[in-house]
Write a structure and sequence with these properties.
four-stranded antiparallel β-sheet; 4 strands; elongated; about 35% helix; alpha+beta; about 90 residues
Length: about 90
Protein backbone atom coordinates (compact mmCIF):
# COMPACT_ATOMS: atom_id res chain seq x y z
CA UNK A 1 0.00 0.00 0.00
CA UNK A 2 1.38 3.40 -1.00
CA UNK A 3 0.72 6.63 0.86
CA UNK A 4 0.75 10.19 -0.47
CA UNK A 5 -0.68 13.66 0.04
CA UNK A 6 -2.99 15.39 -2.41
CA UNK A 7 -2.81 19.17 -2.04
CA UNK A 8 -5.35 21.72 -3.25
CA UNK A 9 -5.94 25.42 -2.85
CA UNK A 10 -9.62 26.15 -2.31
CA UNK A 11 -11.85 29.20 -2.32
CA UNK A 12 -14.99 29.29 -0.20
CA UNK A 13 -17.76 31.69 -1.23
CA UNK A 14 -19.11 32.02 2.28
CA UNK A 15 -18.48 34.72 4.88
CA UNK A 16 -18.14 31.98 7.50
CA UNK A 17 -16.32 29.13 5.74
CA UNK A 18 -15.99 26.91 8.83
CA UNK A 19 -19.41 25.29 8.34
CA UNK A 20 -18.71 24.68 4.66
CA UNK A 21 -15.30 23.18 5.40
CA UNK A 22 -16.67 20.91 8.12
CA UNK A 23 -19.31 19.54 5.76
CA UNK A 24 -16.73 19.11 2.97
CA UNK A 25 -14.42 17.27 5.36
CA UNK A 26 -17.24 14.92 6.42
CA UNK A 27 -18.08 14.24 2.78
CA UNK A 28 -14.47 13.49 1.80
CA UNK A 29 -13.88 11.20 4.78
CA UNK A 30 -16.49 8.82 3.35
CA UNK A 31 -14.24 8.10 0.35
CA UNK A 32 -12.39 4.82 0.76
CA UNK A 33 -8.62 5.37 0.87
CA UNK A 34 -8.70 8.75 2.62
CA UNK A 35 -6.62 8.67 5.81
CA UNK A 36 -6.71 12.27 7.01
CA UNK A 37 -7.60 15.84 6.00
CA UNK A 38 -6.00 19.11 7.00
CA UNK A 39 -7.15 22.67 6.22
CA UNK A 40 -4.89 25.69 6.64
CA UNK A 41 -6.58 29.07 6.22
CA UNK A 42 -4.94 32.24 4.98
CA UNK A 43 -6.52 35.57 4.05
CA UNK A 44 -6.90 34.72 0.38
CA UNK A 45 -7.32 30.94 0.25
CA UNK A 46 -7.58 27.67 2.09
CA UNK A 47 -4.81 25.14 1.63
CA UNK A 48 -6.16 21.64 1.82
CA UNK A 49 -4.01 18.53 2.29
CA UNK A 50 -5.50 15.09 2.03
CA UNK A 51 -3.50 11.98 2.95
CA UNK A 52 -4.49 8.90 0.96
CA UNK A 53 -3.55 5.25 0.57
CA UNK A 54 -3.74 3.24 -2.64
CA UNK A 55 -2.46 0.00 -4.16
CA UNK A 56 -1.41 1.14 -7.63
CA UNK A 57 -1.50 3.96 -10.16
CA UNK A 58 -4.99 3.16 -11.36
CA UNK A 59 -6.39 3.28 -7.85
CA UNK A 60 -4.53 6.56 -7.18
CA UNK A 61 -5.97 8.08 -10.36
CA UNK A 62 -9.51 7.04 -9.42
CA UNK A 63 -9.10 8.34 -5.87
CA UNK A 64 -7.70 11.69 -7.08
CA UNK A 65 -10.63 11.99 -9.50
CA UNK A 66 -13.20 11.19 -6.78
CA UNK A 67 -11.70 13.85 -4.51
CA UNK A 68 -11.71 16.51 -7.22
CA UNK A 69 -15.28 15.67 -8.27
CA UNK A 70 -16.47 15.76 -4.64
CA UNK A 71 -14.86 19.16 -4.04
CA UNK A 72 -16.26 20.60 -7.27
CA UNK A 73 -19.76 19.30 -6.46
CA UNK A 74 -19.72 20.81 -2.95
CA UNK A 75 -21.76 24.01 -2.83
CA UNK A 76 -19.77 27.19 -2.19
CA UNK A 77 -16.35 25.61 -2.77
CA UNK A 78 -14.12 25.99 -5.81
CA UNK A 79 -10.66 24.65 -6.53
CA UNK A 80 -8.35 27.52 -7.37
CA UNK A 81 -5.26 25.35 -7.75
CA UNK A 82 -4.40 21.64 -7.77
CA UNK A 83 -0.99 21.61 -6.13
CA UNK A 84 -0.42 17.85 -6.34
CA UNK A 85 -1.05 16.09 -9.62
CA UNK A 86 -0.72 12.39 -10.35
CA UNK A 87 2.53 13.02 -12.24
CA UNK A 88 3.96 14.37 -8.97
CA UNK A 89 3.17 11.05 -7.31
CA UNK A 90 4.62 8.68 -9.91
Amino acid sequence: MKNTDFRFELRVADDEPTTTLVSLEAKLQTIKGINSLTFTRSKSAIEFTLNASFEDGEQAKNLHRKVINSIMAHEGVTISQVETTLTDIF
